[in-house]
Amino acid sequence: MPVISIRSFDDRDNQNMLEIERLCPQGDENCALGVDKKDIIARYKMYDNWDVFVAEEEGKIAGWIGLTVKPASNRNGKYAYITEVMVHPVFRRSGVATKLVKEAEEKALEMGSSYTYSYIYESNNASKSLFGKLGYSRVGEIKTPAIPTYKKLDIPPEYSIKLIDKTEIVDAVGLINKYNSGFMHFLPFEAQTFEARLKSVPWYGSENFWVVRGENNKIVACAGLWDSSKLADIYYAREPTAMKIMRSIFGVLNHITKVPKVTSEGENLELLYIADYAFDKRQPEAMLALLKHLSNLSIDMDQDYLMTAVDPEDGFLAVMKKLKLQIETWSIFAKSFEGDLPAFNPFYVDIKDMIP
Ligand SMILES: CC(C)(COP(=O)(O)OP(=O)(O)OC[C@H]1O[C@@H](n2cnc3c(N)ncnc32)[C@H](O)[C@@H]1OP(=O)(O)O)[C@@H](O)C(=O)NCCC(=O)NCCS
In what order do the strands lie in the sheet with 32-36? Predict the structure, then answer.
């Protein structure tokens, strides 16, 4: 019987892995998301440390797994995020993913993690079953709301919305820290660490970050736009029925009014990611004004959606719901190496983790 061996990723694996990823949509026969990248490792370069392990059978890549270890807010603690696990269709159901997850867990433990977690797309029953069998439990969920951007929106005149200026970073960081305080996995920024983040996440930067000033000229809302598609395009490999229905309705309405574009199966979703949003919780209207501004920019940039990832209880979701939305769900699966798992809500989503 052929033997599966596991080794570290090598740059020469990249092309092969890109081709395999194309064969690995996440989901079931009715709804599955596909990912199209130009570089498998680009997403990992955003992390301070990471590892990718490749499973091989007689020199052929059968699959791989990636992980990154992060510092917890209690300073000494660490935890690991399993970024992805992929197995070539030919090698499935023979224990390859099981072997890879165990390898990643060993690495996570060795690096001092007390637990691991992963996000699993709503319709990805294979993955849910895989992680369930390996002792993971569903500890919560995150929502990925997407605003179709197709019609320019009016912005209330009482708000001034501008690109952030260097002198405003301290105030914006104060707002972001306050907004996310108490959210699981959130580590407060300092002006310097936030500036470094804006620079180090590719296709983000201060030239894509806006602040809103309200009465008294105080910063009351902020958010950035990240073109994550430069790292990974996503598409529906199998389009959910709701989308098919929507397309046929919009196809008719299209003749009489402006309607959202419904992306076809296999076609990349043109979207921008809303990052580092925060607002004064007494002034959700300021955040809504900024969302409308970002929506208008998205149209100017020929993008079809503004998307983000949030805890279902995050007040930002309630603001987004004031606009038309399509919402999907990802489960959070986690496993503890020692003692009980911490509570996963309210939960802060690290945008870097959202490259599928
Ligand atoms: C999910 C995936 C990684 C599983 O890989 P695999 O090597 O076939 O998994 P294993 O052989 O180790 O399976 C272990 C267990 O997981 C569960 N499982 C795996 N595939 C399954 C499927 N298609 N349906 C139901 N359960 C499944 C089973 O419980 C299985 O045990 P069993 O074969 O004894 O019944 C693979 O299907 C894949 O690459 N899918 C596309 C990419 C993806 O969704 N990745 C996960 C993103 S979080």
Answer: 26-27, 32-36, 233-238
